[in-house]
Predict the 3D structure of the following.
Amino acid sequence: MSLLETANHAQRERLAFIDFNLQYFGQVARADLIQRFQTGLAAATRDFSFYKECAPKNLVLKHQTKKYHRTNLFKPLFEHEPEAVLTGLCRGFGDGISHGVQPSQVCIDATRLVHPDAEVVSTVTRAITNHQPIKVNYVSLSSGESVRELVPHALINNGLRWHVRAFDRKHEEFRDFVLTRLVSIEVLDEPIAAQEAREADKQWNRIVDLHLIPHPELKHPKAIELDFDMVDGELTLEVRAALVGYLLNQWKVDCSKEYSLNSDEYQLALKANEAIYGVENLILAPGYN
């Protein structure tokens, strides 16, 4: 029996939380453990000591920050399933033990064919947390494989794939990169410039009001009003400009001025397409011209 197997379930959850934070954020403090599990300082100290007994090469305490930091020899004690981790991060938490999605016989989710690599996800999230650039080999549809230096600041699910929103030093602008197309990745130990930070990403920081209505050609618009819990036949959303194209495409929203798209396929319509003027990814917006 391994040392880890001697821990009870509650302690394994706390150890998994430490492991998760080291893998995906690169650091963890006793205060994080205390806040998450409502334990005392002495108990948190014991958990870190036990974790270090199980994996002595995984972490090092830096007295300057009063945090435990991931080492280059880190090997996770627990398996953190990438899709479940990304879903958890979207909800604002990292619980540690990640079991993935358990199949149900009575509730079937959409089939997911694109699964990011765990090491890629953890490296990107550490770079985001610590405000560091990354060097990647990226394969694009237009130019094939090339080396890029990116400064990531967010992870995005467009309904089909996970992207990383990052400043691209090659083109000197913010772009979205598909996580599964990162062939290799390493964090660069250097600072980032002000124009590379999230605060400088205008499309990310701009909030667009979208007013969605049932497609005017529908015979029974009440059905769509019920689907989307509309008020007075309208749904209002506040969306980051960088995400507008993804949402309009995923929800199949007719963005043409005359609502000319087939209402059998496009059951929603954009009430006023002037609202999305200046959004950069409108190539994704159905019917917009």
